[in-house]
């Protein structure tokens, strides 16, 4: 499930990953109950950018993470615009995975590629 993601991410899921049988559903991340009502959300990870790019929509990471956990899934947060845990800490808010893009932080034009994917500790 994709919530408030950049156009290139939508393109990746709908064009490239669909060729490998990966189906994608979309929901309005500003309305957590939209995600909660989706049957296909169960066990499927939810991907979110917050604040979103380019609209800068802000999402309730805690609420969306709880809905994902209740469905047996992970909430994956692309911390694109805030870029570091200094400004937003999605793992502390319940996200299962966080993606930090060094590409935009270091360059902004796509000439440099880098980043990090962080996960919550599993007990």
* Spatial strand sequence of the major β-sheet: 2-1-3-4-5-6
Sheet with the most strands, sense and barrel status: 6 strands, mixed
Which stretches are poorly predicted, pLDDT < 50 over at least 5 residues? none
Helix content: 10-25%
**Mean pLDDT over all positions:** 79
Per the CATH scheme, the topology name is: Aspartate Aminotransferase, domain 2
Gyration radius from CA atoms, angstroms: 14 Å
Q: What is the distance, rounded to the nearest whole angstrom, between the alpha carbons of the first and last residues? A: 26 Å
CATH class: Alpha Beta
Whole-number tally of structural domains: 1
Short description:
The chain is an alpha/beta fold. The chain has 4 helices and 6 strands.
Describe what this molecule looks like in 3D.
With 123 residues, this protein is α/β, with parallel strands linked by helices. It has a single domain, classed as Aspartate Aminotransferase, domain 2, CATH 3.40.640. Helices cover 24% and strands 18% of the residues. It is built from 4 helices and 6 strands, in the order E-H-E-H-E-H-E-E-H-E. The chain has a 6-stranded mixed sheet. Strand 1, helix 1 (7-16) and strand 2 form a beta-alpha-beta unit. It is globular and about 40 Å long. 26% of the residues are buried. The mean pLDDT is 79.
């Amino acid at each position: 499930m994709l919530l408030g993601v950049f156009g290139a991410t939508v393109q990746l899921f709908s064009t490239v990953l669909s060729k490998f049988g990966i189906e994608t559903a979309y929901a309005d991340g500003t309305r957590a109950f939209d995600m909660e009502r989706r049957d296909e959300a169960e066990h499927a990870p939810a991907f979110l950018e917050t604040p979103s790019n380019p609209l800068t929509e802000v999402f309730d990471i805690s609420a969306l993470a709880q809905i994902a956990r209740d469905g047996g899934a992970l909430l994956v947060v692309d911390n694109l615009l805030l870029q570091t845990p200094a400004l937003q800490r999605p793992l502390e808010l319940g996200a299962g995975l966080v993606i930090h893009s060094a590409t935009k932080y270091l360059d902004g034009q796509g000439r440099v590629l880098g980043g990090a994917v962080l996960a919550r500790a599993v007990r």
